[in-house]
Amino acid sequence: MDEKRDELKTALRALAEEARRDLGAHAAPEVLMAYHSGGLSAEKAKLVQDHLVACRECTALLLDLEAFPELDQQGARQLSDTEVAAAWRAVQPQLREPEEPGVSAPSWWRRVGGVFSPVRVPYAIAASLLIVSLGLGGWILSLRRENQRLAAHLNEQLAEREQAVAAATKSLEEARRQLEKATRHAEQDQSHIAELRQTVEELSQPQLNIPIADLSPRDFVRGPESAVKTIEVPSGANLFTLILNTTHQPSYPSYALEILDQGSKVVWQGRGLQKSSLGNFTIALSRRLFPAGQYQIKLYGLSQGRRELVEEYALRIRYQ
Fold first, then answer.
1. In what helix (H) or strand (E) does residue 141 lie, and over which residues does it extend?
2. Which end of the chain is more exposed for a tag (fewer CB within 10 A), N or C?
3. Do the Cβ atoms of 111 and 97 come closer than 8 Å?
């Protein structure tokens, strides 16, 4: 069985060698490129196919063309037939090698080590590389322009975002300042409310040992020093009472009172004061409202929308 197989292989080799001798001229690289791209007519394509059946060299060249990637990049500029022909004419003189005298070999064969062998990367491939490089150059230029446009658009978006972030940061800073201000006011209000509650609590408790002072009008008491009444308020007393005596003055429907400090600044004023059956007036003062010092009290009579000064009193307050 093995002998028959060897005989069959030998016969097939002989037939292949005989077919190669009858092949004639190899297909030109331009024809193979046209066949590869589908640019040949049906008749010429049939001839090339018949040649490829028995020609290993042309088959290898066609496989090289098949293995080469197609140039189909988005944005690459398509080359015209004129540009392709010009590129081929420019590279063809550099790729051809002189044949040795008396030796007939295909134009794409080259002597290597004393024998002729087919070149694996023939000049048709080099020409294709040149065409590819031209197309890739246009594609790269297009990509560069697109990248520049995208970079400019991205820079605009970044600038807008930076402006938005700056505006938001400014708003947050202003809101933080307003919050701190409101917090301080709230703390002050809470402190004031606590003081008022303490005052109300103190005033709600029974007041013991409240001092009571009789005040006579300044005109009634002679001498500047003797006209100032001094009141000593114990440390535990939050209130003290003043009795305002009057001379024989005409009566008014209503009275008003005004208390001024030593700098003649009004500390308190009010209406609705009524004369007692003894012909005097009483008023209770708080030590929180009236700190230690000298004060002046003015009593006014109110009648028909007019206010007339009735009496003046001088008072000095001391706290123990």
1. helix 123-204
2. N
3. no
Could you tell me where the beta strands, DSSP code E, fall in the chain? 109-112, 115-118, 212-215, 228-233, 239-244, 254-261, 266-273, 281-286, 293-303, 306-319
> Using one digit for the tens of pLDDT, what is the confidence trace for 79-118?
566 765 665 566 555 444 444 454 444 444 444 444 444 4
Residue with tokens 């020409």: 127
The set of residues, in sequence order, having a beta carbon less than 8 Å from that of 288 and lying 6+ positions away, is 199, 238
The pairing of strands 115-118 and 109-112 is antiparallel
CA 203 to chain centroid: 57
Amino acid present at 93: P
Asked whether the beta carbons of 256 and 307 are under 8 A apart, the reply is yes
pTM of model > 0.70: no
- CB distance 118 to 109 below 8 Å: yes
The token duo for 289 is: 């409202």
The answer to whether residues 46 and 31 touch, using CB atoms and an 8 Å cutoff, is no
Q: Which of 7, 68, 15, 58 is nearest to 37 (CA)?
A: 68
Domains of the chain: 2-93+123-143 (no CATH), 212-319 (2.60.40.3350)
Q: Any idea which residue has 């003894």 for tokens?
A: 278
